[in-house]
Amino acid sequence: MRSILVISVVTIIGLIYANTILSEENNNLKKELTDVQNKKVTGIGGIFFKSKDPKMLNEWYYKNLGLVPNEYGSIFEFRDTDKPEEKGYLQWSPFKETTKYFLPSEKDFMINFRVENMEDLVTELIKNGITFTDTVETYDYGKFVHIMDPEGNKIELWEPVDNEFTKLYEGKTTH
């Protein structure tokens, strides 16, 4: 009878220990899934830079490097690694050197980052004291907002709606 009691107690202790381990693993898995769901930057959405003659430069890149031109420069098409059936886009754009679009930055370039969950990201950036140069604007092809990094670079954040680009530029992209 005593051995049955000892075996029962050991079994119960073992089950409690195993449950604790599994509970910790489950919490870690939940955290990992939450982190994946709360992605911030998912890639580069655009490279913008100042040019003396954007039209000429666009033509030069087309003739010499094969960049398919559009009214803003060239759109690169790629596949999303998480969803390979979906296309993504990156805009390459020379701007007139007199553009005010990069202000208040005094740099000759601006990077556009593709993001997920714009509203959550903006809330987090506000809590972190990040400087915004505007508020979120929404278009058919996505949401945009601009921030400043600590070195005075203006950064464009874009939550894309890639299927709108597919409708606009199908067969007219660089890839």
Report on the structure:
By secondary structure, the chain is of the alpha+beta class. The chain folds into two domains: 1-37; 39-169, 2,3-Dihydroxybiphenyl 1,2-Dioxygenase, domain 1 (Roll). It has helices at 2-37, 54-65, 118-127, 162-169, and strands at residues 41-51, 69-70, 73-79, 87-96, 109-115, 131-132, 137-139, 142-148, 154-160. Strands 1, 2, 3, 4, 5, 6, 7, 8 and 9 form a nine-stranded mixed sheet that branches. The longest helix is centred in the first third of the chain and has 36 residues, at 2-37.
Q: Count the E strands.
A: 9
Shape type: elongated
Low-pLDDT stretches are: none
Rounded to an integer, what's the Rg over CA atoms? 25 Å
The major sheet is characterized as: 9 strands, mixed
Helical proportion, percent range: 25-40%
Broad CATH class of the largest domain = Alpha Beta
Contiguous helical run count: 4
Overall CATH architecture of the largest domain: Roll
Distance between the termini: 76 Å
- Strand/helix succession: HEHEEEEHEEEEH
CATH topology term of the largest domain: 2,3-Dihydroxybiphenyl 1,2-Dioxygenase, domain 1
Mean pLDDT across all residues, rounded?
A: 85
**From the helix content, strand content and strand pairing, which structural class follows?**
alpha+beta
Which oligomeric form is depicted?
single chain
